[in-house]
Amino acid sequence: MVFSSLYFSFFFLPLVVLIYYLAKEKYRNYILLVASLYFYSFGEPKFVFVMMASIIINYLLAIAIDKFKSEEKTAAAKQMLLLDIVLNVGLLFVFKYLDFTIGRVNSLFGAEIPLAGIVLPIGISFFTFQAMSYVIDVYRGTVEVQKNLFYLALYISFFPQLIAGPIVRYSTIADQISNRTCSLDKFGEGTRRFFLGFAKKVIIANNISIVVEEVFEQNVMDTNPILLWIGAIGFSLQILYDFSGYSDMAIGLGKIFGFDFNENFNYPYFAESVTDFWRRWHMSLGQWFRDYVYIPLGGSRVSVPRHIINLLVVWSLTGIWHGASFTFLIWGLEYFFLLVLEKFLVHPEKRKSKIFKIIWRMFTVLCIVLGFVIFNSSGTMTGIKYCLSLFGLNGVPFVIDDTVIRYMREYSPYMIMGIVFATPIMKVAKEKIENSKLANVTSVLIPIGYGIIFLWSVSFIILGVHNPFIYFNF
User: Fold this and answer.
1) pTM of the entire structure?
2) Angle 169-173-178 (CA atoms, 0-180°, nearest 5)?
3) Whether 322 is catalytic
């Protein structure tokens, strides 16, 4: 089930909200848990048992860790933590990377090991990381162990952020599970945020996805570089609004039920540098790797060679986390090389120059676009050829032909909206209006505007516009 569907928006969500608010507070968590399990089982019921097994394993191991720590059996607690990490990583490996590994072994050694043919459960990377972070935090003593299995199950399976994030830390909502406030203001704010995310996904991402898929299916060695640039920029916009739109919907849904989730995007294409980009893009994932991989390895408080190795580990894992493909690994390693360049090879004095800041900002955006070309390509060499062809190295001239004109005529409005909304222009304009004499008028008009935008978005779904979702694959 996807948020940007008529079934979710006009049946599942209204029904859950109605039952939730009619019920007494002591039953609300259980209502959300049942709704979340149904939501996850909607597409493929058998995979709900995989998630339930993950929940039970992490619940029991966290209880064991807490017990051993209270008895000052540090070694036993550490062994339980290591077992938890092995089981969680093992679960991910079997479902996400086993067939890829078998394929590579067969290719390298001429073996004929049959593929397992295991289907990837939706959102397994997200709920596994959430479960693992909970157990690690229990071991560290930063959160109290949750002895109510159903409450922990709700944390891991809560449907707004279950299948595509953001990755919510248990420490963020531990208190909210037992004590949270539902108010009309929060409900209204959550509804507006959901409408905004729905519009990002359906109006911008879905429409741009059509031209992106058509361009990426072309033989890049015979394709007009201008058309390739449309596809490359288009995909960078599609993945931004596809994922940030989903995050907006998740955050909005959380507020509707009284939860406050952390932000996951902050105008990433407005970043001044690669480092700044990863402080703005998929922030929950970056923070997860920072707190549970980078800092435990020593972070930056080590020698330069060790620091570089730490960065290599983190960015290799970041790439691999996205999927079992060398394209994702290359995408992750791109950021490793760029960050090494940025941290160790660019002189600090140069960074202070205004001209350098402008050039570096443009360089950062270019690298982001090229990286996403690799990310979205069917293979590494295909992605590399695409990147080279962008600069005319395929021998095809830059020509504004009929195909380019058609794509620009049909899809430029969505791409222009995507570019404009990728900057803080609208945010700044909204703040100025709210602080002006028009504030009273806009306080009435803005909610109406959100409703109109939502209905406009729904019209695309009714008309059957292409409705993929990139991060379901992860």
Assistant:
1) 0.90
2) 145
3) yes
